[in-house]
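Bug report (template v2)

What were you trying to do?
Predict the complex of my protein with magnesium ion.

What happened?
Run completed; filing so the output is reviewed.

Input:
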Amino acid sequence: METRIFGTSEEDIEQAAEIIKNGGLVAFPTETVYGLGADALNPEAVGKVYAAKGRPSDNPMIVHISSKDDLTKLTCGITDDMKLLMDAFWPGPLTMVVPARAIVPRVTTGGLDTVAVRMPSDPVAAALIEKSGVPIAAPSANLSGRPSPTSARHVMDDLDGRIDAIIEGDNCKVGIESTVVDMTGEIPSILRPGIITKSQLSKALGKNVEIDPALTQKPEMVKTGGLLETSSDFRPKSPGMKYKHYAPKAEMIIYRGERQKVAAAMAEEKLRRAEQGQKVEIIMYDDNDPEKAARDFFANLRACDKAGADVILATALKEDGVGFSVMNRMFKSAGYNIVDV
Ligand code: TXA
Ligand code: MG
């Protein structure tokens, strides 16, 4: 299949919306990462998303809407807590898991009776959803297991020829995927950390928010049928968190500890590897600017692969606020390969 390339003019977005209406797949920019969109209410179209990405079908999709009112079409019980979070963070990089109405196909929810919903702030994403006239199911627009795409180039590198079209917009400003919060229990629970942090959520709600305990565990990795997976006693509530994700082609090692010791250990390892003829790439971030680390992280992994790196040595960020969210991705990229110095 030939992948059509659209710009961000109104006519282009209209044509892309036609493709969504007709059950096709369109990749599009959002403020977090690029998404691969299909009509969320059309099971056949959603099935094509799993196929194009090579994604396990028990991993549910996020459904994107363009107005807060659209939430009532997808769920019946809108609680006061949901309203508070919508008011504080929508449109924006927050996804809420809520009870699903029967209209939402089970292929979209990965067989669950809950649905993840988000209203993106990116104007191109909002226009595409609005012109399509349907909610859009969209996972990140990468091949399953690869780093999430933060530019149109990344999407084309993975999916050219596998999808109907792409809208080429700007690079993504946030750079890591939305915060996913489960709203179905008594206490809201963060299933995937993002740029919107636990303390921001607690503040908006005026009460405590939990973090899914699976997020702070280091799981055992096992190989099943060619796919690297976390072992079966690791049970995160968000099905997508159990696969090895975001992996660069290179081996990756995270160095954690006091700044100067980390730098010395990395320099030593770099030298050792280089002597063996390996190509070594270094990723270093500033603890004082975790937002920049979030914006750059996936692009940095892809750049290391393009440079033909055999091994990536990366410094750990302090694990609080946005740093915690970046480290959630970094641990998975490295398959939990950590050196404490
Ligand atoms: O920023 C984002 O959220 C991007 C852009 C495109 O909007 N989308 C994205 O989608 O990251 P995806 O499919 O790569 O990740 C969706 C995550 C997965 O971890 C999935 O398991 C979880 O959300 N999820 C979706 N529906 C769920 C549900 N009903 N219950 C629990 N977790 C759910
Ligand atoms: Mg993804």
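What did the reviewer find?
The mean pLDDT is 93. The domain at 4-217 is CATH 3.90.870.10 (DHBP synthase).
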